[in-house]
Write a structure and sequence with these properties.
This protein has 66 residues and is an alpha+beta fold. Helices cover 23% and strands 30% of the residues. It has one helix at 37-51, and strands spanning 3-12, 20-29. Strands 1-2 form a two-stranded antiparallel sheet. β1 (3-12) and β2 (20-29) form a beta hairpin. The longest helix has 15 residues, at 37-51.
Length: 66
């Protein structure tokens, strides 16, 4: 029987690594080497966005510098 536990994943923008987003998700524990935990974190984030529990705010254009 597989046990599950909550994990916390910190996502960051490769261009601006100081900008972080933390996602908590449930996954098999102890860690299963066959499982892709990054994919589980992404699926959890998308699920929360679809449910509306994670929302976007302050969407604005960025000034172009070219």
């Amino acid at each position: 029987m597989t046990k599950y536990r909550y994990f916390r994943a910190t996502l960051y923008d490769a261009a601006y690594p100081e900008q972080n987003l933390v996602v908590e998700f449930e996954a098999p524990f102890p860690i299963d080497e066959e499982e892709n935990y990054s994919d589980l974190a992404l699926r959890a984030l998308l699920h929360h966005i679809r449910l509306g529990t994670v929302k976007f705010r302050d969407i604005e254009p960025i000034e172009e510098s070219y």
